Amino acid sequence: MAVIFVADDVSVIRDTLRALLEKQGHTVLEAANGVECLALFRTKQPDLVITDMIMPEKDGVETIREIRRRFPEVKIIAISDGGSKKPASFLDFAQDSGAHRVLSKMQGLGGITALVNELLSSAEPGQRP
């Protein structure tokens, strides 16, 4: 199965995503912010990254842009609850910055496995599905 990085500053969200994705057979590595997420690339390259938009040190937009620039083949899902704004505004910006799919945390995280499966099944030849 796939290697997936989950970057979110809320440990409960990381734990929930890890449980959902490991149940599907994926290997999940966690990061509390974009800096930690990008550091994980030194040890392993993921097939997919799930990143929150609002995080300390390096936010989701900065993280997405750097991944797109350095690792263009990695698929990205952006998630957000919107903080003090509507999540849609952050998620629109995430797509403009290079996220392949977006998901509002307010809709629940149950739909994440469908998005992950969709993106992994559309992997380029030579990439792991």
Description:
The chain has 129 residues and is an alpha/beta fold. The chain has a single domain, classed as Response regulator (Rossmann fold, 3-Layer(aba) Sandwich), CATH 3.40.50. Helices cover 40% and strands 19% of the residues. It has a 5-stranded parallel β-sheet, with helices on both faces. Helix 4 links the parallel strand 4 and strand 5. The longest helix has 13 residues. The C terminus is likely disordered.
Strand-helix topology:
Layout: E1 3-7, H1 11-23, E2 27-31, H2 34-40, E3 48-52, H3 60-70, E4 75-80, H4 87-97, E5 101-104, H5 112-121
Parallel strand pairs: 1-2, 1-3, 3-4, 4-5
Helix pairs in contact: 2-3
- Dominant shape: globular
Q: Could you tell me how far the N terminus lies from the C terminus, measured between alpha carbons in angstroms?
A: 7 Å
Largest sheet: spatial strand order: 2-1-3-4-5
Report the portion of residues in β strands.
15-25%
Structural class: alpha/beta
List keywords for this structure.
about 130 residues, globular, 5 strands, Rossmann fold, 5-stranded parallel sheet, disordered C terminus, about 40% helix, 5 helices, alpha/beta
Quick structural summary:
This protein is α/β, with parallel strands linked by helices and 129 residues long.
